Amino acid sequence: VTLDGDRLRPLIPMGDRYDGPARLALARTYAGLAGEIAVQGHPVVCSTVSLFHEVHRWNRANIANYVEVLLSIPADEQVRRATLRQGGGSAPEGPIVGREIVAQMPESPDLLIDTTTVSAEAAAGLILARLVERGQV
C-alpha cells in the first residue's frame, strides 16, 4: 500500500493548514494510518515530509519491521516540486520545509539516499536491497 502525503493531505481535517501544530497532527495521522495497515499484514510505503522526532520514534516503537528512508533533496528542488504539486503556479502554498520551516531530520535513518547523485530507479533498487538484506522481502 502506498500512502502519499500530498494525496492524503486534502482528505484529512486541517489538511489545508501548514502551521506547526497542523503539520504535527498530520504526521501523527499518517503514522497511525501506516501502522494500522501494516498490522493487517500489508507492506506500506508512506511518502511524506516527516518533520518530527517524536513521530520518528513512535514509528520505530509501534510499527513492526519499520524502515526509515531519508531522501536528501536540495532546497531548490523542494520548492520546484512544491510548486508543481499545486498546479505549477508561481509560488507554492504554505511555507517550504527547509526554508521557512526547520525539519527535525531523522536521527538514524535505515537508509540515506542523496537524490543529487542517485536516480529514482537506483533509489528504488537500494530500498529493495535493504529490505531483502533485512529479510523483509
* Strand elements, count: 4
- Radius of gyration, in Å, reads 15 Å
Q: End-to-end span in angstroms?
A: 14 Å
How much of the sequence is in beta strands?
A: 5-15%
Helix-residue proportion: 40-55%
Q: What integer is the average pLDDT?
A: 83
Shape descriptor reads globular
What is the makeup of the main sheet?
2 strands, parallel
Annotation field: number of helices = 5
Helices and strands: which structural class?
mainly alpha
Q: Unreliable runs, pLDDT <50, ≥5 residues? A: none
Order of helices and strands: EHHEHEHEH
Furnish the topology, listing elements before pairings.
Layout lengths: L1 E3 H4 L11 H20 L5 E3 L5 H10 L6 E4 L2 H11 L25 E4 L5 H14 L4
Parallel strand pairs: 1-2, 3-4
3D architecture notes:
- With 137 residues, the protein is mostly helical.
- The chain has five helices and four strands.
- Strands 1-2 form a two-stranded parallel ribbon. The chain has a two-stranded parallel sheet with strand order 3-4.
- Helix 4 links the parallel strand 3 (69-72) and strand 4 (111-114).
- The mean pLDDT is 83.
Give descriptors for this structure.
5 helices; 137 residues; two-stranded parallel sheet; globular; mainly alpha
In short:
The chain has 137 residues and is mainly alpha-helical.
